[in-house]
């Protein structure tokens, strides 16, 4: 019961947008309905069949939550697929760089604990007794090249100092 209550509590904020979407009723079946045979007549000495028991209240709630979550997942599926495709492309382009980075680090035990400087930079120093690091891979080297906009030639000049204030143009409050 606590699991059902927790699921209902978590799903409740999503109910408004889900019900606002609307749902068209299914189209009626175009096939003719087959004729039904009358129920068989029981023998005189057979006991009457037990009446079907109504479902427990928890069963209706569980079924409702299950249907709601299934519909929510069906609505979100195309968006989740798009997100997966977008992230897949990014991971594919960063894969070689991350592989080169892992090769360059070689073994984490060859490094000291990270240290944060006052300006926020984080430094991870290689231990003095560690073997020499492996060479940097081509994908990582290409990523670390400055972009054309980062070159010193394209850097804008420093801002000019502001002109002196003219006391005649100031308003006293």
Can you give a write-up of this model?
The protein is an all-alpha fold and 173 residues long. It has a domain at 61-144. 43% of the residues lie in helices and 2% in strands. It has a two-stranded antiparallel sheet with strand order 1-2. A hairpin with a 5-residue loop joins strand 1 (115-116) and strand 2 (122-123). The chain is elongated, with a radius of gyration of 35 Å. The relative contact order is 0.07. The mean pLDDT is 74. Residues 163-173 have a biased composition (Basic and acidic residues). Residues 1-20 form the signal peptide. It comes from Paracoccus laeviglucosivorans.
Low-confidence stretches: none
Alpha plus pi helix count: 3
Form type: elongated
> What's the number of extended β-strand segments?
2
Helix content: 40-55%
Structural class: mainly alpha
> Overall mean pLDDT score?
74
What is the gyration radius calculated from CA atoms?
A: 35 Å
Largest sheet: 2 strands, antiparallel
DSSP strand (E) fraction?
under 5%
- Adjacency order of strands in the biggest sheet: 1-2
* Sequence of secondary-structure elements: HHEEH
Distance between the termini: 68 Å
Region (Disordered): 20-62, 125-173
Keywords: Signal
Signal peptide: 1-20
Biased composition (Pro residues): 25-57
Q: What's the topology here?
A:
Elements: H1 2-20, H2 57-105, E1 115-116, E2 122-123, H3 138-144
Antiparallel strand pairs: 1-2
